[in-house]
Structure formats: structure tokens, C-alpha cells
Amino acid sequence: MRTAFFLPCILLAACLAGPAAAAEPAIPVPLHLADVEQLLVAHNRALIASRRASASAEAGIAMAAGRPNPTLSLNTSGINARDPGNHAYLDTILRIDQPIERGGKRALRLGVADALLEASRSDESDSLRQQRMLARQAYFDLKAAEDRARLGRESARLAHQVLSKAEWRLKAGDLAPTDVARIRADTLRADSDASQAEVDHQRARLALAQLLAMESDAARLATADPWPRLTPLPALQPDLNARPDVIAALHRVAAADQAIDLARAQRVRDVTVGAQFERNNQDPGSNLIGVGVSVPLFTGYDFRGELRQAYVARESAQDELERVQAAAAADFNQSTFEAGRLSERARHLRDEALPAARKASAAVQFAFSQGAASTLDVIDARRSLYAVETDTVNALDDAAKARAAWAAAMNLQELP
Known about the structure:
alpha+beta; four-stranded antiparallel β-sheet
């Protein structure tokens, strides 16, 4: 069963344990990448905001579907100010007026709202695409930080071993004090590198925790998956118009088209029909019923501003569509190039450079223990090995993040 199910239980147990448990070191909770993606969907603040934006757009459908409300009025005249209690001269009119929209305005409003709703849903999908990519990259950054922290500790441990042997040889008169001083300075540098790696490790934990809205539990986060395979990328043809950001832009262009028709429909005159019942107390038998129709006269304004504004909004939506399509194409081309080259670089370092550096370092360490290598040889060998190991981890991290970016550019659910 996935760790994502147990994580809330573990955190709850830690909270119930009280202050004594809080003083203990944080117990790491190893997460698979699939667990991170599940937590992302459930807790990521950007995704929650995008879902609320979609819910707001759904409310826009109800607003667009609304019809004009009728107006009910009751008017009474003939009240004698000197004798208000005398109702003999009252004239009472009960009236109802119902506006009627013409020109298909309601259908056009619904068309605009529907297009904007689909755009919001596509924005939600695009937010998930982007946040998933960021979570994957943060996961790989954390894995790299874990590896660098481990390498820093191992490098510091190795430096202390060399220092111990150097001090033993100094006592035996087989090594000069200046050489021991150099090794001691190199050991202090290794300790400093290890401390900095631990700081970077905690920063990587916090970066991932922020994406999962789990900042208070950042110290518990750890990775459980190995590095992704560096196999060649699959030969897939991108369908950029299927990307959610492009789809959202297409829906906004459609909404702008509908908005132009809606602005043009404002020039179709709506009518208001009314009916009234009049009761005259002076002549109780002469109650009257009447009907009426009112039509606006566009003598002062003909909605040309709204129409012009709608055309400008349409042009802006088209410009945005072209920008998004161009950005999607550039994103695919760049991510494909980077994923291929960085994967090749990582393979070279992992499979060739790293084994050679480890072999060379082991040989120098053995030679130094036998008195056949100088102090500078030992220092250079340890530094070279640490540099190659760190470069390999960084290269694996860069390759994994590049492949995550390529999957996001292709709108793929799984990493290649």
C-alpha cells in the first residue's frame, strides 16, 4: 500500500505523542514519486485555486442563463391630505411589467459562459500539468540533495581517515608536519562541504513540502524511488493543440467570438410588455384592465463602444492563442533537446567517469597508506572523486528534471 495512505497517520501519531516526541529527531517518511503526485492533487494550493476558479466559472453559467425578472408595482392616488381616512376618491392601479430579450442574447450569453467554463477547466488541467512537473523536479532535487549529503558525509569520513593515518605517520617520523597541516586543512574543508550539503538537503525538503502544502513536516520527507532510467526518449509526434494551455486559449477565442455577437445583439431592441388592473372607488363598477408595450429608442447611444471593445478582446484572445502555441512549440523543442543531451551526459558520468574516479582514488589511498604517494596526491584524489561523484549526482538530477519537463511539454502522465 502506498506511503501516501500512511503519511497522515504517521504525522497524527507524532502530534499526539506530545512534547517529548517533538524533541526526538524527525522520522523520515520515504515517498515514492506516485505518492508525491497523489499528495499534490489533494493538497497543492495552486491546484485548489484552479479548481475554485472552475467552480466560479460554473456559477457564471447560472448567471448567463438568467432571464429578466418581472416588475410588480402598486400605485394609489386620490388621497385627501385633509381627510386621509376618506377612501371614496382613491384610484388604485396594480401593474406588472415583463422585459423580453430579443436577438438571442440569452443564448449568446450562455455560449460565452460555456466557452469560458471550458477555458477554466483547461486552465485547471494545465495547472495540474505544470504543478506535476514542478513536483517531479522538486522530488529529483530532493533525491540529489540526499545523495550529495551522503557523499559529503562519506568524503568527510574519508578525509578524517586520511588525517588519522597522516598523524600516525607523523609520529613515526615518516611524514612532515607541513603535509599533515595540509591534510588537516583539507579535512576541515570536507567538513564544511558536508555541512553545506546538509543545508541544501533541508532546503530541498522544504521546496517539495511547499508544493505539497506540508511545510510543517518538511524534515520528514525523503525519497524512495531510484533515479529514472536514462533510456532514449520515445519517438512521439507532439499534438500541441491537445495541450491544455492551448485548449484554454482556443476556448477564449471562441468566447470572444460569441462576445462579438452578443455585443451586436445589444442593438436589437428588447421590449417590455405590461398589464394592469385599475380600481376606482368613485365608480365601483368601472374597474379597468389595460396592457402596454414599451420599446427603447437608441437616440443617445447605440452600443458601438461595447462592439468595439468586443472586437479588441477578440484580437487580444487571438494574439494570446498564437503566443501560447509558439511557447508550446518552443517548450517541446527545447525540452526534447535538453532531455536528450543531459541524459547522454548523465550516462557518460555514471557509467564511465565515476567508476574510473573511484578506481583511481582507491589506488592513491592504498599507495599513501604504504608510503608510496604524497600528501598532495591524496588530497587531489579525494577532491577529484568527490567532484566526479557530485557532478554525477547533479547530472542525474538535471537529466531527470529535463525528462520531467519533456513529459510536461508532451502532456504525458508518466515519465519516459
